[in-house]
Amino acid sequence: MARLNFSRQILPILAVIAIIVAAVLVLRTQPNRAIAQPARTPPNAPAGIGATVAGAGVVEPASELIEIGAQVPGVVDRVFVAAGDSVPANAPLFSVDSREARAAVDEAGARLQRLRQNAAAASTTLSVARRQFALYAEAGDPRAVSRQEVIARQGSVEDAAAQVAVARAQVREAEAQLESARVALARHLVRAPRAATVLQLRTREGEYAPAGQQGNGNQEPLMTMGVTDPLHVRIDVDENEIWRVAIGQPAIVSPKGAAGQRIRARFVRAEPLIVPKRSLTNASTERVDIRVLQLIYALPASSNRFFIGQQVDGFIPARAAR
């Protein structure tokens, strides 16, 4: 039986098999190019309001976000509110361990009490010195009392008066120190700066609360608040489209993914400063180095389906061409 030649017979067969396998793999890995309906309806300009300028927006409180932090560092010993609570102005939000501050207040109060007693004693000494000096002054005959005695008694009166002045100054200083200690104690209790709703709570009882400016770097605010009646929408308008915007006109707002829901929003104001775009839509064609004009609109009270931080599509009427 003749032996098969590897280079002339076996190798070509293996090459043909490899080509067939490669072709099958290529055909099976081809993407599906069939035309299908999009999973989400893209935003489109609302009908009936003419030409519009579109912009991406985000829902925010009417007061914007109020970030709350601790004024002094320490362990949070009590939290008085929960997310979603509406609180009046000056209502307690949370407190930081204040045992040392309370001890300082007690110490300052005790010192003030002691100095007030010293001042009362000095006043008594002054009163006695004045009565004794009056006895010498009432003597009709100058020879009845020596001049040295008169000078000594007068000096006692002046010394007692000086002691009273020093004691009263020490009392005023102690009162100021007590007030300073009370202010330091009050800083351990964080209160609401205005009537608002607690939007987010990032601290718990027993956690350490750092002090200082919040919202920078990795340091998040311990609490976020805001006025939610009404809600506002901040819409970013491309700087290339600013000249087309009819500033002052109502806008149509639609939630992301729900283009069929169209809410008419009232114009509130236009921010006077052009800023870099921050509300990103993650579109592949979106430029991150663009600057935008921010327009603020108020949502009607009936639009209770919007949430703070939610992204929306805004459609603002365009100015008539001239």
Description of the structure:
The protein has 322 residues and is α+β, with helices and mostly antiparallel strands. It folds into three domains: 52-62 and 228-317, Efflux pump adaptor protein, beta barrel domain (Elongation Factor Tu (Ef-tu), domain 3); 66-96 and 190-225, RNA polymerase II/Efflux pump adaptor protein, barrel-sandwich hybrid domain (OB fold (Dihydrolipoamide Acetyltransferase, E2P)), CATH 2.40.50; 100-186. Helices cover 32% and strands 25% of the residues. It is built from three helices and 15 strands. The strands form three sheets. The chain has a six-stranded antiparallel β-barrel. Strands 2-9-7-4 form a four-stranded antiparallel sheet, with no helix packed on it. A hairpin with a 7-residue loop joins strand 11 (251-255) and strand 12 (263-270).
Structure keywords:
322 residues, Elongation Factor Tu (Ef-tu), domain 3, OB fold (Dihydrolipoamide Acetyltransferase, E2P), 3 domains, six-stranded antiparallel beta barrel
Task: Spell out the blueprint of helices and strands.
Layout: H1 6-28, E1 52-61, E2 66-68, E3 74-79, E4 86-87, E5 92-96, H2 99-138, H3 147-186, E6 189-191, E7 196-201, E8 208-209, E9 223-226, E10 231-238, E11 251-255, E12 263-270, E13 275-276, E14 291-298, E15 311-317
Antiparallel strand pairs: 1-10, 1-15, 2-9, 3-5, 3-8, 4-7, 5-6, 7-9, 10-14, 11-12, 11-15, 12-14, 13-14
Helix pairs in contact: 2-3
